[in-house]
Amino acid sequence: MFEDWLAAALHPEVAFSVGLTVRIMAVAVPILFLLGVPLGYLLGKGRGKLVATIDMLVSLPLILPPMAVGFALLLLFGRQGPLGAPLLRWLDVELVFSFPGLVLAAVTAGIPLMVRPVQAAVRGDLTRLIELSAMLGKNGLTTFLRVVLPHCRRSIAAGLFLATGRALGEVGVSLLLGGDIIGRTNTVSLEIYNAVFSGDFPRAGVLALLLTAVSLGLTVVLKKTGKE
Amino acid sequence: MGDSVTLTARLHKRLAHYTLDVEVECPAGSILVLTGPSGSGKTTLLRLLAGLDHPDEGRISLGETVWLDTAGGVRQKPQARGIGLVFQEYSLFPHMTLAQNVAYATTDRRWAHTLLASFGIAHLAGSKPCAMSGGERQRGALCQALARRPTALLLDEPFSALDAATRSALRQELLVIRERFAIPIVHVTHDLAEAALLGDTVLALDQGRLDPLWFDRQVAERLDEERILREHQITAPAGVTALFPPTETRKGVCA
């Protein structure tokens, strides 16, 4: 039994999928931060139809089935898609069945959970503090960096942890955008599916335990951040 | 400083339930008190002066400097007006210490320390607002507002959440600020005694318009209430007495 699990842990696809997932997260988490914080701020402060439309679009990955979101992205970013074709032609970037596609899947899955806590924090007493900063002569950028970011740091941290957890466990969008190509786009979550499908339960168990441990770790950090 | 830095404003703004239509003037070194019932437009007027809200029509100037002129297309941002503003709450950044709060407004560290020392809160420089009392927080807010040597000072009920003793002390400190800084000060308050004590000019707003008789009416009503209470020897409202019966029988308490 122990030998089976040890052998499973040393399986080359385990190492590859873990390495790939770490690399995806190393790119996706900074993107989630850089995209999610300004977006949360905009949605929390903004008014009007455009803001309401962006708000709805951000919520879609939470509301729609992941397979449907993945299919929509596949159509959009495919070789012949309205966004995929220009990307390929002008920038020579192909998102489908590639590493960038997996990053896009992780960001798409995580963005609603990154944006919502920031949006809620911005809607609180922050308006008064932003006005105070303006009265003290500070411009928008200084106010954002020195007042908004520090004031919302717990919400930003909570958003990042939740979004990372969600992105780590992403299957549907990753499957359709990444294609689950062995040795190329098989993330940890997809590799669990592959292992179960091929009857290699110890390998699935090892990877599932790993994901569970990371998720529990994120939950503990999130709780501690909330208590501070 | 003299008449050349008088703050003058003529403002017109349609609000949900009435139209704000006022003309005010506050010379340097004087306190203009704005009072009136809740929702009468006092805070809106203050926000218009600060540049946080915009009127439909109007003109605001400080001496020769025009901050706003809707007819001439002039609209200076709050940052450019150089005004100090103190709110009733949220006047300090909660994630910064007191020293950091004041330093946010000025790079002159010696001036920042002088201000903290003159308000008697230099020992709290390393404390965050949550660890300070209400009076200390408002003193800190005044330090922060004064740190950038403001062109005018706007105060939106800054003492209303404080206890009577602290309120009294801060009123005296505001009179010292008036003398030392010699800038126009516009102070919003519900407190009639505070209005009478601090105001070189007291203006009452009601439904967005100046009501020259409102203050006198309120004082007369208050005096009338006190006379009735004295005549009937009432020491506490009947409802309060019923809820919390006194240990000793009071004389002349109305049922």
Give a summary of the structure in a few sentences.
The complex is a heterodimer of chains A (228) and B (255). Chain A has 228 residues and is mainly α.
List the keywords.
A: mainly alpha; 12 helices; globular; B: 255 residues; alpha/beta; Rossmann fold; six-stranded mixed sheet; five-stranded antiparallel sheet; 11 strands; disordered C terminus
Describe this entry's structure for a reader.
The complex is a heterodimer of chains A (228) and B (255). Chain A has a single domain, classed as MetI-like (MetI-like fold, Orthogonal Bundle). Chain A is built from twelve helices and no strands. Chain A has helices spanning 2-9, 12-45, 49-63, 66-77, 84-91, 99-122, 126-135, 140-151, 153-168, 172-178, 188-197, 201-227. In chain A, helix 2 crosses helix 11 and helix 6 runs antiparallel to helix 10. Chain A starts with a helix and ends with a helix. The model of chain A has no long low-confidence stretch (mean pLDDT 89). Chain B starts with 6 loop residues before the first strand and ends in a 12-residue tail after the last helix. Chain B has nine helices and eleven strands. Among the domains of chain B are: 1-82 and 152-164 and 180-212, P-loop containing nucleotide triphosphate hydrolases (Rossmann fold, 3-Layer(aba) Sandwich); 215-255, no CATH class. In chain B, the strands form two sheets. A six-stranded mixed β-sheet of chain B has the order 7-8-9-3-10-11, sandwiched between helices. Chains A and B meet through helix 7 and helix 8 of A and strand 7 of B.
